[in-house]
Structures are given as C-alpha cells and as structure tokens.
Amino acid sequence: MKKKIAEHPFFFVGCWELREMLGRSARDEQQLLEAIEEIPLDSIYYHTHSFFLRHKYIAGPYPNDFATWAAIQMRDRVLGEKLGILDPYDSENLESLRGEILTIIEEHLSQLESIPRVIYGEPFHFMQSRIIEVPTGLVARTLTEFREILAGVDDSVVYYHTLEAVLRLGRRKGDFTLWIEEQLGLPDLARKISNIDPYMTTLESVRHRILKLCDELLGETKKYGQNFYEKQENI
Questions:
Q1: Same domain, yes or no, for 120 and 179?
Q2: What does the alpha-carbon distance between residue 129 and residue 195 come to, in Å, rounded to a whole number?
Q3: Would 8 be classed as within a structural domain?
Q4: What pTM was estimated for this model as a whole?
Q5: d(CA 208, CA 194)
Q6: Are residues 105 and 147 in the same domain?
Q7: The dihedral of CA 117, 96, 181, 140: what is its sign?
Q8: One domain for residues 166 and 124
Q9: How would you write the pLDDT of the chain (235 residues) with one tens digit per residue?
Q10: Which of 14, 108, 133, 148 could form a disulfide with 157 if both were Cys (CB 3.0 to 4.6 A apart)?
Q11: What is d(CA 115, CA 199) in angstroms, rounded to the nearest whole number?
C-alpha cells in the first residue's frame, strides 16, 4: 500500500468529565419518570452517553444508568431490558432521547398494578456532566502513525473521537472516519470503521476493531496474529 500523507493531520484529543450532583433522587419508577421529565439535558447525557466513559471495560445488557438501576436496584428486569435496548446515538438530540426514555417508562408503568419501590436497593441519584476537551499533543499524518498512536492513547481519546463525536458533529460518522475518508482518501476503510457499533460493547473493543481494520489494510495481520484481535474484541 502506498503511504499517503494527509494535508491536514489528525490531532488526538482526550477528555475529562466534569460531574455535579443535582440533589434529586428517585425511590420508585414513578419518581424516576417525573424527574426525567424535568432534569437538565446535561443529566440525560450523563446517565446515557457518558456511561461508556465511566464503564470502559464493562459491556452488558444494561448500558445506561436508568436501565442498570431498574434492573439491579429495583429488581425490575423487564424495564431494565426495555431501557437497555435503547441506543442513545440513534436519537437526533438529547431532548428526543428524553422523550424516548419517558415513553418506555410510561408504557411499562401502564401495564403494572402497583408502582415498584426501592426496598433493599439504593435510590437513583441524578447527576449531570459536561465533557471538557484535553489535547494530547499527539498528531498523525499517515495511517501508520494513526494506528500506532491509537494503540497507546487513553480510553478517553477513543470515547471523544467516536461516541462524543456523534453528538458533537450531529451525524453518525466519528472523527476517525471523517479524517481517514477526507484526508487519506480511504473511503472503504472509513466505511468499515463507521460501521463499528460502539453500543453494547466497550471502548477497548472499539479501539482494537479499528486497529485490526488498519492492520489489514497495512498488511500487518500476520505480524499480530488473528488470535490477538479475537482476544481483544472480547475484552
């Protein structure tokens, strides 16, 4: 493969999450519903999108705080599963996501004879957060440089350029995809990376799937070995 040097290099950026407690909690699913109707959008973001930033190595059936609380603390696995299949990155914006969450809870409560309450578990404590950019000083001009830097950066970099980028850019393509397509002229690789679904997986898995795609194009699969990638995708 002929090495192409990008006219505009890729600047790797990490992030910090600034968290704040709202001083509001819910002890049953009706209170959860009422609070979600009123909380700031930054709180919707915290309990859905940034869940992946706080749980870097955990992938499971309840990939947001609302689903986790319903299933674990309320012991309402049905509601937990209903909220768990909601992909926050399919919503146009946070307000739309709020509406989808409310619809799921309202429909669930309408089928119950009584409202479940926390007995032995913990109340749901509402928080909000904002993402702060943190430049790493790392820059890539070729696919080889991109691959090598991506392999060693903090997980927050993966989060910022994939998951956070969807909300920031307002479209499904992340920063990696756009740069590889526009600056390196590799639309097939960009398409394959954009098809990686970050939902219901981990940041490490996303990272290593991107690395595998890069190595396949660079002819490095033999060097690392197929078993290496299979193990990494199961992290």
A1: no
A2: 28
A3: no
A4: 0.82
A5: 14
A6: no
A7: negative
A8: no
A9: 567 899 999 999 999 999 999 999 999 999 999 999 999 999 999 999 888 888 766 656 788 999 999 999 999 999 999 999 888 878 888 999 999 999 999 999 999 988 878 888 899 999 999 889 999 999 999 999 999 999 999 999 999 999 888 877 776 689 999 999 999 999 999 999 999 887 767 889 999 999 999 999 998 644 554 454 454 444 4
A10: 14
A11: 30
Largest CA distance in the chain: 66
φ, ψ for residue 58 (rounded to 5)? -115, 125
In a domain, 49, yes or no: yes
φ/ψ region of 137 (left if φ > 0, alpha if ψ in -120 to 50, else beta) reads left
Decide which of 128, 163, 183 is a domain's last residue. Answer: 128
CB 47 within 8 A of CB 27: no
CA distance 158 to 136: 12
The structure tokens listed for 86 are 């909601």
Token output for 128:
């909000």
Residues 6+ apart with CB under 8 A from 184: 4, 6, 142, 143
Side chain identity at residue 159, one-letter code: Y
Does any domain span residue 27? yes
**Range(s) of the domain holding residue 88:** 15-128
Rounded Cα distance between 3 and 126, Å, is 49
Closest by alpha carbon to 126, among 19, 24, 20? 24
> What whole-number distance in Å separates Cα of residue 138 and Cα of residue 99?
39
Which of 95, 128, 161 delimits the end of a domain?
128
Can you read off the two tokens belonging to residue 188? 């097939």
The identity of residue 77, as a single letter, is R
Please name the residue ranges forming H helices in 170-225: 175-182, 187-194, 203-218, 221-224
